[in-house]
């Protein structure tokens, strides 16, 4: 997980690039990395016994939204 965090920090810094194309590409990759990270954390939370409602609360979304997004994987 530390490698992913380091990658996200590099990408976040790259969004400030003076070249808008490079900044946009970095933002796209940052979003993709964040999505993958969230999915991994949700899987880990479920394996450790957290309920959908607990996960949803921590993510700031409804239980239905988090279950719809991750419940059928």
UniProtKB/TrEMBL annotation:
The keyword Transcription applies. Pfam families: Sigma70_r4_2. The keyword GTP-binding does not apply. Keywords: Sigma factor, Transcription, Transcription regulation. Residues 38-70 form the RNA polymerase sigma factor 70 region 4 type domain. Gene3D superfamilies: Winged helix-like DNA-binding domain superfamily/Winged helix DNA-binding domain. InterPro entries: RNA_pol_sigma70_r4_t2, RNA_pol_sigma_r3/r4-like, WH-like_DNA-bd_sf. Belongs to the sigma-70 factor family. ECF subfamily. This is Sigma factor-like helix-turn-helix DNA-binding protein.
């Amino acid at each position: 997980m530390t490698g992913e965090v380091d990658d996200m920090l590099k990408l976040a810094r790259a969004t400030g690039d003076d070249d808008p194309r490079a900044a946009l590409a970095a933002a796209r990759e940052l979003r993709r990395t964040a999505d993958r990270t969230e999915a991994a954390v949700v899987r880990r939370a479920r394996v450790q016994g957290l309920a959908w409602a607990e996960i949803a609360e921590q993510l700031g979304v409804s239980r239905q939204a988090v279950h719809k997004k991750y419940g059928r994987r």
